[in-house]
Structures are given as structure tokens and as C-alpha cells.
Amino acid sequence: MEKLKTIEELMEKVKDAKTYTIEGRGAIVRACKDLYMLMEEDVCAVGSEWMLAGLYKDLCEANFAEPYMCDLQKGTFATMVEIYKQRIMPRL
Questions:
Q1: CA angle 85, 55, 74 (to 5 degrees)
Q2: Which residue, 15, 45, 47, 81, has most beta carbons within 10 Å?
């Protein structure tokens, strides 16, 4: 599965990102948006469109300006990946 490989690469980028730098916070922003875009089609394909608003809010509308809040976003990212793997992928 190409998507799983891409998600694992995004996970590594998020894990390695240094939130005390602008570049590190930018890497997390990009990874969150990329994850949302990867998940969007599959979420719709399994009939769970109701999840999209929450996914977008959790992944794309977080406070990425503050290092601490951006660091918390790493956990949210990991949670969304697990939801995707456990709830969406088996239904595809």
C-alpha cells in the first residue's frame, strides 16, 4: 500500500521535527495537511464523510505558531494515523 508508506514517511518527519524552529513547525504543518489530503478520499469512500470536519479541525486548524502547542500536535497526528489504520483502512 503506497498510502501506508507515505503515512509512515510523514510520521517520521513529524517525529523528527524540532518545534522550537520555524522550519520544524512548518514541517509539522505540511505533514498534517498532507495526511488530511491522503485520508480525505478514503474517509469518503467508506461513507464516513461526517468525520471530515473533525479531521480538518484537528489536523489543519491547530495552533502551530507556539512550539509547545505544535509539539502537542505530534500526538494528535499519531492519533489520527491510528484512527485511519484501525477504522478506515479495514473498511476499504
A1: 75
A2: 81
Give the position of cell 512550539: 67
CA–CA separation, 89 and 42 (whole Å): 8
Residue whose entry in the numeric block shows the C-alpha cell 469512500: 45
Q: State the Cα–Cα distance between residues 89 and 92, nearest whole angstrom.
A: 5
pLDDT in tens, 48-87: 999 999 999 999 999 999 999 999 999 999 999 999 999 9
pTM of the model: 0.92
Q: Please tell me the distance from the alpha carbon of residue 86 to that of residue 32, in angstroms, as a whole number.
A: 18
Helical axes 22-45 vs 2-16, angle rounded to 10°: 150
Q: What is the pLDDT of residues 13-24, one digit of tens each?
A: 999 999 999 999
Q: What is the pLDDT of residue 43?
A: 95
